[in-house]
Amino acid sequence: MIVFPAIDLKDAKCVRLYKGDMNEAVVYNENPPSQARTFEEAGFSWLHVVDLNGAIEGRSINIDIVREIVKDTSLKVQLGGGIRDLAGIDRWISAGVTRVILGTAAVRNPDLVKEACRIFPGKIVVGIDARNGKVAVSGWTETSDMDVIELVRKFSDCGVAAIIHTDIDRDGTGQGLNIEATEELSIATNIPVIASGGVASMLDLAKVKAANLHGVIAGRALYDGSLDLKEVASFR
C-alpha cells in the first residue's frame, strides 16, 4: 500500500481546499518545492500533485513549480490538473513525471485514456472526483450525470495504472475517508484503487490497508499535524 502525500497548487502556492471549493483555499506553504523536500526527508517515495489552476483552466498552469519539484527531489510524482490531450501527457512524462492523472478528460474523452495507456503503458491514472456517486469535472465545478462505477468500467481492459477515488464532500474536512464507497468501487473493477478525501487519522490508513486498496492520498492532516509525517511515511 502506498501513502501519497498531497500538494495542491493554486497561484504557485501549496494549498488545501474544503470540499473542493476554490474560495476555501488555505495556504500551507508558499514554497511548494520546499514542501516536497519535507515530504521526501520524512521518508515518502511518492508525491501526489494537483494543479488546481490547471484543472479550472483546462491547461497546465503551475508548470515551473512542478518542474522544480521533479528536478529537486527523487520523489515519484503523480500529477493531475488540466492535462487534457496526448501532447500534454507526453510533455509531463518527458519532464520526469512518473504518472499522469486524467480526470475531466476521462469523462469527456474516454478514447484518450485508452490511447494514452497504449502509448504510455503504466503511466496513466484515472482520477474520479465524486459527489453522491456522480462524477464531477472541471476542477469540481460541475457534476455530471455519469455514475462512478459506470465510468470505471469503460477502462477495465485498457491498462490504466490506478483509479483515484476522491469523495469531494469529505475532502479537506478531516471527517475520515468514505471507505465504503471506495471499497465498493474496488470490488467493481480489476484496476488498483487509491482512496482520497478526508483522511484524518492512522485509523483511516488501517481501513485502506484492510480493504486491500492500492493506496491512499493524505493532505490536510499532514499539514495541520493531525498525522505525523514520519509515522505515515513508514506505514505499510
Helices and strands in order, then pairings?
Layout: E1 2-10, E2 13-18, E3 21-29, H1 32-42, E4 46-51, H2 52-57, H3 63-72, E5 76-80, H4 86-94, E6 99-102, H5 104-108, H6 110-119, E7 124-131, E8 134-137, E9 142-147, H7 148-153, E10 162-167, H8 179-188, E11 193-196, H9 202-210, E12 215-218, H10 220-223, H11 229-233
Parallel strand pairs: 1-4, 1-12, 4-5, 5-6, 6-7, 7-10, 10-11, 11-12
Antiparallel strand pairs: 1-2, 2-3, 7-8, 8-9
Helix pairs in contact: 1-3
Task: Provide an overview of this structure.
One of its GO terms (cellular component) is cytoplasm. It catalyses: 1-(5-phospho-beta-D-ribosyl)-5-[(5-phospho-beta-D-ribosylamino)methylideneamino]imidazole-4-carboxamide = 5-[(5-phospho-1-deoxy-D-ribulos-1-ylimino)methylamino]-1-(5-phospho-beta-D-ribosyl)imidazole-4-carboxamide. The structure is a single chain. This protein has 236 residues and is α/β, with parallel strands linked by helices. The protein has a single domain (2-233), classed as TIM Barrel (Alpha-Beta Barrel), CATH 3.20.20. It is built from 11 helices and 12 strands. The protein has an 8-stranded parallel β-barrel, surrounded by 6 helices.
Largest sheet: 8 strands, parallel, barrel
CATH superfamily: Aldolase class I
Mean pLDDT: 93
Fraction of residues in H or I helices: 25-40%
- Give the helix/strand class: alpha/beta
CATH class: Alpha Beta
Query: What kind of oligomer do you see?
Result: single chain
The number of distinct β-strands equals: 12
- Total domain count: 1
InterPro entries: Aldolase_TIM, His_biosynth, HisA/PriA, HisA_bact_arch, Isoase_HisA-like, RibuloseP-bd_barrel
GO cellular component, one term: cytoplasm
Active site: 8 (proton acceptor), 129 (proton donor)
Pfam family, one: His_biosynth
